[in-house]
Design a protein that fits this description.
This protein has about 750 residues and is an alpha/beta fold. The chain contains 27 helices and 18 strands. The strands form four sheets. Strands 2, 3, 4, 5, 6, 7 and 8 form a seven-stranded mixed beta sheet that branches.
Length: about 750
């Protein structure tokens, strides 16, 4: 839950929670004493009503509330063009407005205040916009907790106690539902429920025993907190990495816990260069460090919640066992696709999630989770929903450098990107069709953020093309993956803007709907947009989210010319690899040919022939010889300027009788024209080329290409490759073979 309600914590995410309290929560849950509500898998919306203006108001964040909320028309505009998602938001909100307007004004005031003073935390559950769980009915589900009150005098939005107003809402719900009985959407309050008690105390004892052994291992007692445990875990590591005075080490630990007022410069002041850099490296990996530190506690809590949620049925699903089976089958399909994807990154993610999930058979409920209050804080149990969601998300949409593995998911919209755990997020929207070195420089300028979201469109109505080939999202994403990995950037995710939306529009949606208080968001903008966006960005951000416009750096070619995707596409269309290579980042130069081919570029015939020539020379034992160097020098000159007169090392006469067939394994040479035979029998190895500007016929190009790939007809093994042991040929025989091949290639060029 984000936005107005903020982030709802797992037990291990509250640093102030003691292990005595965790044990107490475990005990209450296992005894059936833990009271809460079902956590649902829909789209969040805060709803209110202005009695003064006689209209319903909607909000997705605190900024919306402060500005007076959105009307039905404004909400429709916000989600315009987003298909079923637009329909779900608009239709549910219209039903809500109609239901509230049926109430007496005094009742309206008792629920919402006079002018939309109280906003209720609600969830839109629509089969058309299913995320992971498929619900059977269209429901506007009002939660029991997480509501907000707006104080117009102070301009603040608070999580004030609105229990009296909520009671008034409860009393009016039946009347409200009756007023909209003909509508497709139902309006209801999320029912209070208790988790069932476990059968016996076996699972409770196992969980508490594991918890005790885990904290004992680092010298932590029941009365100490989650924060104490993390500090005990990370301190030995920190001391092994950097030498700091006690006060500096304390500041470093506070910085890792995101304590306000403690910055990098404060920590490293007075340190030598070496220790400064070590502190910098520690802070770069702070998320991974903190995650690793809490992981043993996380595992204990996870396994306990799996048992607590086992068999729990959703109130919004008609056939729960059927939905559980569907989820198992879908996850199994995703696992199979990932395992056969040949993606190391995808397999690594899968292994991480399977360590939690353990088995598909452990998917035992269609409920996303359970929400409850304890000692003034709200917590959630999610069991195996979290790893299941990650596996399905990887399959459907990809993660980081891994693209979608499901070809049928092209039309899915509104993938909820989970960025709630990151302290800083960089948003990099753009066309990137295709990405070039200037684009990578943009990402580098914000790569210090915990997470970088590169946002691209699907192509839209005017897709970018190279010839007749569309540069689509997947093609551009593959290029991005190469650039970023070669540059050592791994903290990224490539996001696709929905059909009908622009990358910048998607960036604003992420800012508005997916960020949580305490985060810093960097929005990369062009030079011309930096000032304009800088004034508007904060208005779109939820309260407590610090957002900044970052002007993209200007990159040029060595010549000083503009770096443009348009010029990059033109170089590919013209098959000009040398020009294309100028647009490839230096860190990916070794992959330039691979990227060129991926985007539709073709290797020149001359380059193919040179590859074949060099391969032949290597096969004959000329790998490092001066002879090879002389051969290649003259061949490269010939390719550039046309065949020249005979000269070293091309001093050997051609055979007096030239076979109409190519050397063994090289296919057949076309029948000679009788009128050309005398010319072809000239006893010089290199001749002036009469038709050097005439390209080789298409069939010749294909033949040469297949030779370069090692698929030469008549050759027993890839060329060059191992051969059966034969009587060693003398050097003259080797030279004769090479000469005959080179002669053949020259004849192909002359045609």
């Amino acid at each position: 839950m984000g936005g107005v309600a903020g982030h709802m914590s797992h037990l291990y995410e509250n640093p102030e929670l003691t292990f005595k309290q965790i044990k107490d929560i475990f005990t209450k849950a296992s005894n059936g004493e833990l009271e809460g509500t079902e956590k649902t898998d829909g789209q969040n919306l805060f709803i209110s009503y202005s009695v003064r203006n006689k209209s319903a108001r909607a909000a997705r964040n605190k900024g919306n509330i402060k500005s007076g909320g959105m009307s039905a028309q404004e909400l429709a505009q916000k989600f315009a063009g987003r298909g079923n998602l637009e329909k779900a938001f608009v239709e549910s909100f219209e039903t809500f407005e109609k239901a509230v307007q049926s109430l007496d004004p005094d009742v309206q005031v008792g629920i919402f205040g006079e002018d939309a003073d109280i906003y209720y935390n609600a969830e839109i559950q629509d089969p058309r916009t299913a995320n992971v769980v498929n619900y059977d009915t269209k429901t506007l589900n009002i939660h029991q907790v997480g509501h907000a009150e707006f104080d117009k005098e102070t301009g603040t939005v608070t999580d004030a106690d609105v229990s009296k107003n909520a009671v008034a809402l409860d009393n009016a719900l039946s009347s409200m539902q009756q007023a909209v009985s003909d509508d497709e959407f139902k309006i209801q309050k999320n029912a209070i429920l208790k988790l069932r008690a476990l059968d016996g105390d076996k699972d409770l004892k196992i969980s508490i025993d594991r918890l005790e052994r885990t904290i004992d291992a680092v010298g932590i007692s029941d009365n100490q907190t989650v924060a104490d445990y993390i500090i005990a875990r990370i301190t030995p590591f920190l001391e092994s990495q950097v030498q700091l005075p006690d006060d500096k080490m304390e500041m470093l630990i506070k910085r890792l816990f995101k304590v306000k007022g403690v910055g990098f410069n404060q920590i490293v002041k007075g340190l030598d260069r070496d220790n400064k850099e070590r502190v910098r490296e520690i802070l770069k990996s702070e998320k991974a460090l903190m995650k690793s530190a809490i992981e043993p506690i996380e595992d204990v809590v996870h396994d306990f919640t799996v048992e607590m949620l086992r068999g729990l049925e959703s109130a919004f699903i008609l056939d729960n066992p059927k939905e559980v089976m569907r989820l198992r089958q879908e996850v199994q399909q995703a696992i199979a696709a990932i395992e056969t994807s040949d993606s190391e990154e995808a397999m690594e993610i899968l292994q991480q999630q399977m360590r939690k999930l353990k088995s598909v058979e452990d998917i035992s409920t269609a409920v996303e989770g359970f929400v409850f209050d304890y000692d003034g804080n709200s917590y959630k149990f999610t069991g195996n929903f979290a790893p299941m969601n990650q596996i399905l998300g990887l399959f459907r949409y990809g993660r980081g450098g891994t693209g979608s593995l499901n070809e049928d998911e092209e039309g899915l919209q509104d993938y909820d990107i989970d960025i709630s755990d990151y302290n800083s997020i960089a948003l990099v929207p753009g066309g990137f069709k295709p990405p070039h070195r200037g684009h990578l420089d943009m990402v580098k300028s914000v790569a210090n953020a915990d997470r970088v979201l590169i946002i691209m469109g699907s192509g839209g109505k005017s897709p970018r093309k190279i010839g007749d080939r569309i540069v689509d999202f997947n093609m551009a994403a593959n290029v991005w993956d190469m650039y970023l990995k070669d540059a050592g950037i791994n903290n990224y995710e490539i996001v696709k803007a929905e059909t009908g939306s622009t990358p910048i529009g998607k960036a604003f949606n992420i800012l508005e709907d997916m960020t949580v208080p305490g985060q810093t968001v960097l929005m990369l903008t062009s030079q011309k947009d930096a000032g304009r966006f800088g004034q508007k960005l904060q208005a779109y951000a939820p309260e407590g989210v610090d957002v900044k416009a970052v002007e993209a750096p200007t990159s040029t070619l060595q010549s000083g010319d503009e770096i443009s995707a348009r010029f990059m596409r033109a170089s590919i269309e013209n098959n000009n690899f040398e020009e294309f290579a100028k647009y490839v980042p230096n860190s990916s130069k070794d992959r330039a040919e691979e990227i060129f081919a991926l985007l539709g570029g073709k290797k020149k015939v001359s380059e193919m022939i040179l590859d074949i020539v060099e391969s032949l020379l290597d096969e004959a034992g000329y790998q490092t010889s001066a002879t090879k160097k002389a051969y290649m020098k003259n061949w490269r000159k010939m390719m550039a300027t046309g065949p020249q007169k005979a000269g070293p090392p091309f001093t050997k006469n051609r055979p007096k009788k030239v076979s109409k067939s190519a050397p063994a394994g090289f296919g057949a040479l076309e029948e000679d024209d009788p009128d050309e035979k005398k010319k072809k029998r000239k006893k010089v190895y290199m001749e002036p080329h009469a038709h050097q500007d005439t390209p080789a016929p298409e069939e010749d190009i294909e033949e040469i290409s297949s030779m370069g790939g090692g698929s030469v007809q008549g050759y027993a093994a890839p060329f060059p490759g191992p051969r059966k042991k034969k009587k060693k040929k003398n050097m003259s025989e080797n030279n004769e073979f090479i000469d005959s091949v080179l002669d053949y290639l020259l004849r192909k060029l002359e045609q």
